[in-house]
Amino acid sequence: MKPTLLILAAGMASRYGSMKQTQSFGPAGETIMDYSIFDAIRAGFGKVVFIIRKDFAEDFKAIFEPKLKGKIATEYVYQEMNSFLDGMPVPPERTKPWGTGHAVLCAKDVIKEPFAVINADDFYGTDAFKKAAEFLTTACNEKTYSIIGYQLSKTLSENGTVSRGVCEVDSHHHLISIKERTKIYRDNDKIIYENDGAKHEVPFNSSVSMNFWCFHPSVFSITEKLFHSFVKENYSNIKSEFFIPLIAEGFMNDYDGKIEVIQTSAQWFGVTYKEDAPGVKASIDALVKQGVYPPSLWG
Questions:
Q1: Which listed residue, of 104, 109, 121, 179, carries a Cα 20 to 30 Å from 199's Cα?
Q2: pTM score of the predicted model
Q3: Alpha-carbon span 47 to 250, nearest angstrom
């Protein structure tokens, strides 16, 4: 059975101020997402599921349906505020969606096979999709999930600080925890993160999460239970979000699960700041020149 790719495309980027999921970066107008889908098809994925906002669905489908027709099966899922609340009303003051973990849960009815989860606006690279497909088809099971780990030095922005989940990994390459580090930047030949005004060094080759996860479909029932508990505990905290690392934590702590950290050599890039866009475009142009991608992805 071919694995599925689940793309989290429901969010508007507050720092970026536009729908960067559909911005053109490739020579023939390709979005960052196009490259992820192209890499996934090459790696052997059989279906792509988009999580989008309902009010954006028509525009979104008009962009992606024509080019993907006949190349990979597509499905669409809407992240609604009242989904999976177990009969509870949406807190009246809440305007923020419930987070990436809730977005994954919203795909429960359309994914029945091992699957990968990625962000819409991150460029992950060919190697990452190959490794994910291999894991999903040979090693993924109810007790073993994985995360693709990126080398920290390959995930920074020249235009400001970034936040990264730094993975703590044991000697068997299993995840112990993800520590959220904010304000990470390169400082000459060091990488620094700031916390409460103090500066701390982080090793260049630290493994970081770029939200590229590989799950067995058993994750949905686990996530549903964890989400219900989360909502009960955070009902009145209208800014609280149920993130994917909370699923990972629950899986490891409460279900005796293991999460493999699979290292990729790929260079990540993405548009954290508006100023990052020209660099992303140049990086994609360079990959096209090297023959990694055709000048027009979809012919």
A1: 121
A2: 0.94
A3: 27
